[in-house]
Amino acid sequence: MVRFLKSLLTIALVTSPFIFLFFYIDSNQEEQEEFDPKSQLVENTQKPFSGLLEEDSIQEDKVRIDEEGSRIETVRSLKKAAWIPPWDYQNALESLRNFESEFHSISPVTFQINNDGSLTQRIDPNLEDLKEIAQQREILLIPTISNFDSVMMKNIFDNEENTQRHINSILQVVNDYKYDGIDLDYEAMKKENRDDFLNFVQTLSKELKKEDKILSITVLPKWGEGVVYTGLNETREVQDWEILGKWADEVRIMAYDFTPVPSSKPGPIAPIEWVDKILEYAVKKIPKEKIWLGIHLYSYEWVIPTQESDTTDVRTNSYTYNVVKSQVLKHDYVNVQYSKEYSEGYAEYKCLGNYSCVLYYATPESVKTRKETARNYQINGVAYWRLGGEDELIR
User: Which one of 38, 63, 131, 325 has the lowest number of neighbouring Cβ atoms within 10 Å?
Assistant: First the structure.
């Protein structure tokens, strides 16, 4: 069986642009800060382990009218943004082409950081095909710089020359490629670099404003003072929401991965009560017009060994919605439910070999519920992770 699984994994890696993740680690600060979870666990849009809308205006609020034509309620509209992953760029591009409703902005994850503060391309920064769509539909193009290495960030912020090089590199790519701004997704930093990072943000913000460019900062979720988080505590401390809310034009909150990938026990990706707590805290720290709620469109499948399994390892896969719908939920033996408690889809089933699978996944209803929660807090918009394979989730 081990040889069979290894063969299966080898074939998947060769034939698919996506990567399976089979690992288990403790979710402590140091380990999490040394790897990129999005490169370790990447959506498999080909075949799951089992073998198995509403439209928003981006300009003005909607008004509900009663039968007599009287105004009865104003429904706050939400701007929409979405990230485009580098490993599935073409799929995401095709998805964008098929949208009838418009996005406010699109953020391809275009760059990663080098040890000296310079930038490396993850995808072609010219983005000619994406620019064409963006210009036709008046969508802002705000590429993302991603980093998950706290040691690298420390090397940059501990050295003034590296910090300035990093600022200059960002300004250069924004101007050279005529972007509308930049999004910083720095998910691993040491608390000793808190002031360095916040000063960097202030300086970069001032420079971008001179060019009338947008500074977006993507942050880890927080939901209160004195909370003991299960991982990346230092990064959360560095990401001071009050200060970031002062200097950033957008603060995108990644309100997902409540149950992290390394967890050996399955759990919801973003329980709705938790999302509510995040926004309740956020509006106290950040101006509402700058807040964007990150909404997940993906699923997590936990592959759990039984007594008959040939390993004790718990494995985790991630799938897009179209794979979940077309290759998992269609089977009669899959127990499909919708958790009202979490506002997420849930499924249990026997999977390949002697394993038991548990799946948590986004549904059109779960996305709608999170959008309604965002409206209740009167924030600016929602940002989807991610475009490509989302099917009808956000239509």
Answer: 63
